[in-house]
Amino acid sequence: MEAWLPLLAFGVGMGMLMVLLSRYQARRYQEYLDRHGNEAAKMVEQQKATKLAIDRQTAALERIAEALEKRT
């Protein structure tokens, strides 16, 4: 039985190390997802603002085109 004791201790130690490593990696990955999720949300808001500005510019150009057509 004494011959198996170092192997058993090594196995338990490696198992604990793997659990700790997987928890660390999961936490880091969640931080990564949170950070990039926030950046993606900012980009979506920026795209919405850009689309709104483009829509306003398009409407203004259409009004200018209508005014020019009426002038001629």
Helix content: over 70%
Biggest β-sheet strands, sense, barrel = none
Terminal residue distance: 104 Å
Low-confidence stretches are none
Would you give an account of this structure?
It contains one helix and no strands. It has 72 residues and is mainly α. The model has no long low-confidence stretch (mean pLDDT 93). The longest helix is centred in the middle third of the chain and has 68 residues. The N and C termini lie far apart (104 Å).
Topology:
Layout: H1 4-71
Structural features:
single chain, 72 residues, mainly alpha, 1 helix, 94% helix, 0% strand
Task: Write a brief caption for the model.
The protein is 94% helix and 0% strand.
